[in-house]
Amino acid sequence: MDVKKRVREIFEQEAGAIASIPVTDNFEKAVSLLRDCHGKVLTTGMGKAGHIANKFSATLSSTGTPASFLHPGEAAHGDLGLIEENDAMVAFSTSGKTREVLEVLVAGRELGLHTVIGITSHPDSKLRDLSDVILDMGTIREACRLDLTPTCSMTVMLAISDALALLLMEQKDFTREDYGMRHHGGYLGKKARRTS
């Protein structure tokens, strides 16, 4: 196996997956809903998608939109109590059929969850039915030769969530000083404070 050739193929496939994300008016709708949310912003996802959802909540929090990750497995054992009226939730599921994620959304609606933004690639999924806005990932073929290991799908989810976070940051006129106040440790904290 030519390792460098295979690495380039994987990089090209993941970059191609990002380039193929459908950019629709739903991005504007999603940003508006998150920006104008009168409750908390929550994220959820299971497995690898859950890791992306967790990273998204951390990025939001550090860029001016306080957010929390709700693990679907823990939600069924009491963590649903995090959900209140007027909250918004961003749900990550490539298939749009992840049982634990769907259960969180159904139970969340009963608790007053106001807005659901779904991120999925499957055109026929329950997540689409439960969401107010869908951010379509497009057709995904994983970089894994078995087309099983979540690779391109996670790259696409990460790109979509980064776009949302940066748009919110820009619309809120979030400054370098604001960033430094929320991220005072480490290299980025020092960098933010150096020129603010």
Describe it.
This protein is α/β, with parallel strands linked by helices. The chain has a single domain, classed as Glucose-6-phosphate isomerase like protein, domain 1 (Rossmann fold), CATH 3.40.50.10490. 51% of the residues lie in helices and 12% in strands. The chain has a five-stranded parallel sheet, with helices on both faces. It is globular, with a radius of gyration of 17 Å.
Helical content (DSSP H or I, runs of 4+): 40-55%
How many runs of DSSP E, i.e. beta strands? 5
Quaternary assembly: single chain
Main beta sheet: 5 strands, parallel
CATH architecture: 3-Layer(aba) Sandwich
Ends distance: 50 Å
Strand order of the largest sheet: 2-1-3-4-5
**Radius of gyration over all CA atoms, rounded:** 17 Å
Q: Which superfamily, in CATH terms, is the homologous superfamily?
A: Glucose-6-phosphate isomerase like protein, domain 1
**Strand fraction:** 5-15%
Number of helices: 9
Given as residue ranges, the uncertain stretches (5+ residues, pLDDT < 50) are none
Shape: globular
Order of helices and strands: HHEHEHEHEHEHHH
Taken together, the total number of domains comes to: 1
CATH class: Alpha Beta
CATH topology: Rossmann fold
Backbone structural class: alpha/beta
SSE order and pairing:
Layout: H1 3-19, H2 26-35, E1 41-45, H3 48-62, E2 67-69, H4 72-75, E3 88-92, H5 99-110, E4 115-120, H6 126-130, E5 133-136, H7 152-171, H8 176-182, H9 186-194
